[in-house]
Here is the input.
Amino acid sequence: MKKVLTFAAIIAASLSIVACGSNNGKQIDSLSYAIGADLGLNLSLGMKDFDLDREIVINNIQEFYKNGDVEGEEIMEVRNKIMQYQYTVLMPYMYAKRAQDMLGSDQPDTLPALPALYNEEFTREEVSAMMGKNMGAAVKGVDAEINMKHVLMAIEDAKKVEEPVHIDSLMRMTQDQMNSVFQRHAEEVRAKAEAERAKAMEVNAEESAKWLAEVEKQEGVQKTESGLLYRIDREGEGAQATADSDVVLVNYEGKTRDGKVFDSSYERNEPISFPLDGVIAGWTEGMKLVKAGGQITLWIPSALAYGENGAGNDIGPNEALEFKVELLEVNP
Here is the structure.
């Protein structure tokens, strides 16, 4: 059987939407139909043994897609419960089922009984609802205009498929067509992401340069040959770092140019120690400009920070940064 791309691959790629002709001559939204086909075929084939309540599953898919929050506490709790179900109920069942298949006895009555798929904690109705919510969250997580009518159409079509070999003849899209849709959209999303990144690099570089130029005008701000801006906010009287291998103990707060705090040892209520050759270049240079017991503010150009790559969700490419640092100790 040809392998249809998994729905996880759709989510990872954040696919967008196209239209494709159906086998009955009417237009269907191919991405929505392919998503529904993946869900429906999982219900009909991959989760056949579960005997889930399809009505509950489908109702929860629709309800979550309409009103759910893909980053909310409800779906986090649902996914945690699904994980518990997998470990405590599903895995013992699968091991026993595999053992039965390996024995292949002609006398089924002589084989050990399979563990129950449901119990008082995980009833058929509850598991069906959990699976439906998780599927609904997956659909909602796609960065595209989804036609839920066509998602449901595909789930209904997949209900007729009892063997993988019948997929192409019973569904309105073949497996090859679904693969083509997924791959085409993955390419489109990659291209879109690259264009957005290029734009962000350009905008951040321009805005960071303007910001640093304004900072440089502030009273007490000095500039090094590398372009690092700094201001001594409190003179220290202790040791001063001189080598990149020196280890410093600091409290600090890091901000983006719009004032958003992205990291803070103050919030963790715990200072941090590190060697100067283990941090960004702006810190390596900046920590040699103040003595222990002092406080310094650093405005770090992107080239001395995280450059074109940025860091995490808060620091974009070509983003200049601000750090307020208290130097507590210096250890050669």
